[in-house]
Design a protein that fits this description.
- This protein has one domain (2-165): Beta Barrel (OB fold (Dihydrolipoamide Acetyltransferase, E2P)), CATH 2.40.50.180.
- 11% of the residues lie in helices and 39% in strands.
- The protein has helices at residues 57-62, 133-136, 155-158, 161-165, and strands at residues 2-9, 12-17, 21-25, 31-32, 40-46, 49-54, 91-96, 105-110, 112-119, 139-145, 148-153.
- A hairpin with a 7-residue loop joins strand 4 and strand 5 (40-46).
- The longest helix is centred in the middle third of the chain and has 6 residues, at 57-62.
- The radius of gyration is 16 Å and the shape is globular.
- It starts with a strand and ends in a 9-residue tail after the last helix.
Amino acid sequence: MRQYLTFELDGRRYGVLVEHVNSVLDPQAITPLPHGSTIVTGLTNVRGNVVPVFDPRETLKRTKVDDERIERKKTEADSSTVNDMDDEEGGIVIFETENGTLLPFIGLEADKIGKVVNLEDSEISSVPDFLPENASKFFDGFCFIGDSRHSIINLRELASKESLFSGSEGGRRA
């Protein structure tokens, strides 16, 4: 059994392994960076340290994950009607991950931050073969929590140096 922190971006639900999460912060000021070809959108102060904040929404939208084609695995836990986002607010999730840069921490501003959920490997569907490599690399799988599908994020790939600073894949447009 592994633990995942759930969060929401633009109405889509995601999960990430708790082992990558350093902290979860209430919404706070983010100093914007000039527009460029990066998904790093700004900087924030976390306990006296400057931490970059990234916004993977466009990168994840470009994967074109089709909710209808991802089959739900039936499990014993299906009888529960857990809603991991009830009355949750947004904030910044601070991740600690080796991403090929000198950045020890990176933040993600989420619309809603859900709960930590326990999932067995058998509850997570693998990444479907129909997703192209440039889309599937951002996901470790998919699962259902209650009636809601969650995409399990491959944080090492999503927050990699290539993804953060690539102008062609996921970068913002000026």
